[in-house]
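Weekly modeling sync, notes
Attendees: S.R. (lead), two postdocs, one rotation student

Agenda item 3: backlog of single-chain predictions. S.R. asked that every request posted to the team notebook include the full sequence so nobody has to chase files. The rotation student volunteered to paste the first one in as an example of the format we agreed on. Action items at the bottom.

Example entry:
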Amino acid sequence: MLIDASLPPAVLKDIPAIARAAEQAGFSALWAPETMHDPFLAAALIAEHTSRLYFGTGIAVAFARSPASMAYSAWDLAQASQGRFILGLGTQVKAHITRRFGMPWPASPVNKLREQIEALHVFWRGWQENQPLDFQGEYYQLSLMTPFFNPGPISHPHIPVFIAGVNTGLARLAGQVAEGFLVHPFHSPRYLREVLLPAIEQGAAKAGRSRADVQIAATVFAAASPFERQFVRQQIAFYASTPSYRPVMTLHGWDEQAQQLSALAARGRWGDMAGLVDDEMLGTFAVLGEEAQIAEGLAERYQGLLDRLGLYLPYVPGERDKFWDKLLSALSA
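Predicted structure, as returned to the notebook:
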């Protein structure tokens, strides 16, 4: 497996030092999330301050952007990094799209994301091969690209697109049109094996592709201390309360707990939610043990299931360096 790292919610001035340290430590890729900051700005700094490290948006909120804006950003980052950029996209959930970004929620999120990815490739192919812009879909009709707005060809025009998701619709879409699938942290190996991977394979077969054409990457919960266990309980409780993530709980027979968590979240009782995540649930969704045992636990769970693995814990240089060194040494071998 390739071992990746995630940026902490750092301000831009701190990104270069984190990126250089991640490259020196031996991580395969560094992902910039879209939580408190724009991931494309962080990605530009990673490109500038590293020479070998792959990097990507993990994720960029696709429905908050047009295909054109994403195409330009990805094209520039691919050129600046000599082909090391990965465009990771996620749909987010309806409430954030409509109430945080003020954008419409589509009737079919899967179909809209499919159109966005197809439109990206039309832009990129047109710029690389000097072809007219011509894309006609349900959500986007694109037909204007004059020389003034055409950035022209680049030396590394193939930009991998990874899709993030929890449910089978986006997993099948990844199998059809993407180079990778970013497994949500709220998953279990059983859910990955029995639900997501078969859906990816179905999508790949429909498009005349194979499972090997899609890299499977996951961010994984792990906890080595009582404080970390409590933090992970809180995260599991938050994700399990989200109705669109219910199939994960259903697979394990925890529908009643999921409904209770949703009810608590609706009443704003966030502090009470972690108490509903018992030890069995915690151990299902997280790798537990002393720091020395985490790498072994990760390998046991995910060897043969994942191509890329990262921890929900962000990478901060100078914090737990020995832990990261051991993890990289054990899992990259």
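Discussion: group reviewed the output briefly. The longest strand covers residues 215-223.
Action items: rotation student to repeat for the remaining queue; S.R. to check formatting next week.
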